[in-house]
Amino acid sequence: MPARAIANPLTEKILEIEKQGGGYEDLKTLISGSANRKYIYEGDDENGFGWAGQVMGLIKDSPTVAELFGRIINEAEEIRTKWGR
């Protein structure tokens, strides 16, 4: 079943197995719930993976919280100015 995941060493291994014709039986331990928990809760990207949605491809950078809030405030001020309020 196709799915999106955050690229890391384990997802590269999964893709390689699929390219070689591997099926579910070859992948089931790599795509299990425990492998997902290793990444999400333990930060183990060598042996775990994280699911990703469509928006993953739209992310261009990872700003700090301060930078993000600064951007939001600037955008809000631009909109307010544009709308004349």
Automatic annotation (TrEMBL):
Superkingdom to which the source organism belongs: Bacteria
Name assigned to this protein: Enoyl-[acyl-carrier-protein] reductase
Lineage of the organism: Bacteria, Bacillati, Bacillota, Bacilli, Bacillales
Source organism: Mesobacillus boroniphilus JCM 21738
